[in-house]
Amino acid sequence: MTWTWFHRLGSPPYVYALAARLTPWFAWPAALLIAGGLAGGLVLAPPDYQQGDGFRIVYVHAPSAWMSLMVYMTMAIAAAVALIWRIKVGHAVAAACAPIGASFTFVALVTGALYGAPMWGTYWEWDPRLTSELILLFLYLGYMGLRAGLEDTQRADRASALLAVAGSVNVPIIHYSVTWWNSLHQAPTVMQFGKPKMALAMLVPLLMMLAGFTLYFVAVLLVRLRGEVLSRERAASWIPEVLKT
Amino acid sequence: MSRFLDMGGYAAYVWPSYAVTFTVVFLNIFWARRALARSRAEARRRLAMRAEQA
Fold it and tell me: What is the Cα–Cα distance from A188 to A205, expressed in whole angstroms?
């Protein structure tokens, strides 16, 4: 068992070059999957027997809600790795995650309100699922505010990493909120063991959107990561080299 | 076409949802590229300053 790949991931010039090389490999499949998911979700899938064409909001609501949680877990794990093993690149990954996660948590809340209005008769309710998702948005904003408030990058890295790790308790609360408490929100349809309760013509576009948004996240993260790595290196000899291209 | 745009009466909810989502999708691409460009410009400035001092 060799750990050289892991050590190389701690090396800024290697990460910078790898991120640049990998970006299109995530961006183009993401674009194709999202385009396919849109065609399938807006045109090919039949209207729902209860929600009519209103159910098509799920094709943007579920992926953004998934992003809000998945990006947070990525951020918390990267922060934990950085704290435990003192790997600077981990802090760079965590910092790069936050604005992406915050913006998609906002999208999940807005599309959720637009979904709730016709289906539940209300844009907002202080419901366990909705409230815990709102707390997630505040966690992201708190993380970004903390970083912005600390001038010294090393201190900002450590303090914000602790916040990210501590805040990760909210993630299972959001996920299980619909089963633990009475919630207006429906239970998971796709993310469950066994057979999903959805017709294939509806399910396939949803899975394409979920996969597409995940790859899109990686692509955007890789672009941001390069910036974060670069700004953490003050006088490294590899910088003039990467600035040429 | 107009039936498609009408979304079975849910147009006022469906289209704003898609509009918000894809606005944020494109904004994230724009913000990420801008952040990288700024870091690169900042690194260039630092290099130039050091070259001047040397």
Answer: 17
